[in-house]
C-alpha cells in the first residue's frame, strides 16, 4: 500500500508531536477495538476471537522484523521481557548499558547483575572479555540518537558478549532486523501505534536455552490445570497471559504496517523532523525524535496555546514525528517556538 493512501487511516488532531510517548491508532484498529469492547459489554462472544488476535499479532511482528514466529514472545511491557532475559545471566554477570538509557532497560539488569555504563557512542569500545551482555536502545528515547549498531555487534561478537536491543523507539519507523542480536524487546504502544499492554520480544534459540520462564502461566504452558509443569517448546514459553484487548488493537495496526515500506515511513518522518530542525536553525539529522533546549520560561504555555503536544525529557523539549505528522503540525510548533 502506498504511504499517502495509508495516512488517510489516521485522524490526529493537529499538533500531535509526541509519538515517542504513545502512537495513535489507525481507523481499522480503533474500530475493531471498539467492536471488542461492545462484545465485552454484552458478553456476546467467547474470548477465543480476541485471543486469535494475539496469534495474528505475534506473526505480524515476526514478519516486521524478519524473524521466525517461534522466536517471538508476547508480553505487556518491554521491561517484563528484559526481566525474563536477565534470568539467562550467570551469577557474576556484567552488563554494559549506555549511561543515558530508559530505565525499562536498566532496572531489570540492575536487580540481576553488575551494571557498567558508557556514553552511547562509546559503547562498542567499552565491551571487554568480562562483558556478559550489552543492552541498549536502537533509538535513545530522550535524545533520538541512533545506536552505532554495527560497531556494537562487531565488538560484542569478538568477545562472545550477548547483544540485547530495546527497539521500542525504533520499530515502526526504522527498518529493524534481528541480525546479530540475541534478543530484542519492543513496547508496541509508541511507533507501532498499538494499545498500551502489547509488547513483543525476539528471543534467539541459543539464548532461550539459557533462560528460565520465571513468569510461567497457563498461556506459556500447555495446560490449564495442575501439574506437571509444561512449557510451550518455543518462545511462547516466555509469554505473559495476554491482555486481549491490547492485541485486538495491535493486530490490524501491525498488518497495516507490514503492507507499507518502512523506508517510506522513515523518509516521511525525517522530512518532517528536518523541516522542524531547519525552522529552528539546526542542521538536519537522522532521527524522527528531536530534542531541544527549553530556555524560554513560557515555552510550555505557548505550545499549549497553539495546541501543540510534545514532551519534556531530561530537561529538554522532545518532539517526535510519525507517518501521520503533517507540515501543518510542524509549522504550528515552529510558530509557537520562534
Ligand atoms: C526505550 C524505551 N523502552 C521501553 C519503554 C517502555 O517500557 P515498558 O514497556 O517497560 O513500560 C519506553 C517508554 O518510554 C522507552 O522509551
N- to C-terminal separation? 37 Å
Rg is 20 Å
- How many DSSP-defined strands? 10
Could you tell me the CATH topology label of the largest domain. Answer: Aspartate Aminotransferase, domain 2
User: How confident is the prediction overall: mean pLDDT?
Assistant: 97
**Ions and ligands:** pyridoxal-5'-phosphate
| Name of the CATH architecture of the largest domain | 3-Layer(aba) Sandwich
Strand order in the largest sheet: 1-7-6-5-4-2-3
Shape: globular
Name the CATH homologous superfamily of the largest domain.
Type I PLP-dependent aspartate aminotransferase-like (Major domain)
Estimate what percentage of residues fall within beta strands: 5-15%
Order of helices and strands: HHHEHEHEHEHEEEHHHEHEEH
Tell me the number of helical segments per DSSP (H or I, 4 or more residues long). Answer: 12
Structural class: alpha/beta
Protein name: Aminotransferase class V-fold PLP-dependent enzyme
Domain Aminotransferase class V: 52-285
GO molecular function: transaminase activity
Keywords: Aminotransferase, Transferase
Protein architecture, described:
The protein is an alpha/beta fold and 338 residues long. It folds into two domains: 3-25 and 261-337, Aspartate Aminotransferase, domain 1 (Alpha-Beta Complex), CATH 3.90.1150.10; 29-258, 3-Layer(aba) Sandwich (Aspartate Aminotransferase, domain 2). The protein has helices at 3-6, 27-42, 48-65, 78-86, 107-110, 123-126, 149-158, 205-208, 244-258, 262-279, 299-305, 327-337, and strands at residues 72-75, 94-98, 114-118, 133-137, 162-166, 183-187, 199-203, 289-292, 311-313, 316-320. The protein has a seven-stranded mixed sheet, with helices on both faces. Strand 4, helix 7 (149-158) and strand 5 (162-166) form a beta-alpha-beta unit. Helix 3 (48-65) packs parallel to helix 9 (244-258) and helix 10 packs parallel to helix 12. The relative contact order is 0.18. The mean pLDDT is 97. Pyridoxal-5'-phosphate binds next to helix 4.
Amino acid at each position: 500500500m502506498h504511504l499517502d493512501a495509508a495516512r488517510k487511516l489516521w485522524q490526529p488532531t493537529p499538533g500531535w508531536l509526541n509519538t515517542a510517548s504513545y502512537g495513535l491508532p489507525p481507523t481499522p484498529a480503533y474500530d475493531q477495538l471498539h467492536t471488542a469492547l461492545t462484545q465485552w459489554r454484552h458478553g456476546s462472544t467467547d474470548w477465543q476471537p480476541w485471543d486469535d488476535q494475539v496469534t495474528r499479532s505475534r506473526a505480524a511482528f515476526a514478519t516486521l522484523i524478519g524473524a521466525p514466529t517461534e522466536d517471538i514472545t508476547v508480553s505487556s511491557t518491554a521491561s517484563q521481557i528484559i526481566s525474563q532475559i536477565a534470568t539467562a545471566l550467570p551469577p557474576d554477570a556484567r552488563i554494559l548499558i549506555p549511561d543515558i538509557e530508559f530505565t525499562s532497560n536498566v532496572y531489570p539488569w540492575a536487580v540481576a547483575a553488575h551494571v557498567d555504563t558508557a556514553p552511547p557512542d562509546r559503547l562498542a569500545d567499552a565491551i571487554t572479555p568480562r562483558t556478559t551482555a550489552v543492552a541498549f536502545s536502537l533509538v535513545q528515547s530522550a535524545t533520538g540518537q541512533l545506536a552505532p549498531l554495527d560497531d556494537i555487534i562487531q565488538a560484542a561478537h569478538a568477545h562472545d558478549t550477548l547483544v540485547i536491543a530495546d527497539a521500542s523507539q525504533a520499530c515502526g519507523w526504522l527498518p529493524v532486523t534481528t541480525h546479530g542480536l540475541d534478543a530484542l524487546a519492543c513496547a508496541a504502544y509508541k511507533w507501532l501505534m498499538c494499545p498500551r499492554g502489547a509488547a513483543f520480544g525476539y528471543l534467539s534459540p541459543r539464548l532461550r536455552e539459557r533462560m528460565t520462564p520465571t513468569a510461567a502461566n497457563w498461556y506459556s504452558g500447555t495446560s490449564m490445570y495442575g501439574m506437571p509443569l509444561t512449557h510451550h517448546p518455543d518462545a511462547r514459553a516466555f509469554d505473559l497471559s495476554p491482555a486481549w484487548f491490547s492485541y485486538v488493537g495491535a493486530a490490524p495496526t501491525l498488518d497495516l504496517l507490514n503492507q507499507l515500506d518502512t523506508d517510506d515511513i522513515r523518509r516521511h518522518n525525517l522530512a518532517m523532523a528536518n523541516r522542524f530542525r531547519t525552522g529552528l536553525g539546526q542542521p538536519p539529522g537522522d532521527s524522527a525524535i528531536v530534542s531541544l533546549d527549553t530556555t524560554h520560561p513560557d515555552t510550555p504555555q505557548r505550545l499549549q496555546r497553539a495546541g501543540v503536544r510534545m514532551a519534556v525529557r531530561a530537561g529538554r523539549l522532545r518532539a517526535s514525528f510519525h507517518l501521520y505528522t503533517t507540515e501543518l503540525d510542524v509549522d504550528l510548533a515552529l510558530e509557537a517556538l520562534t
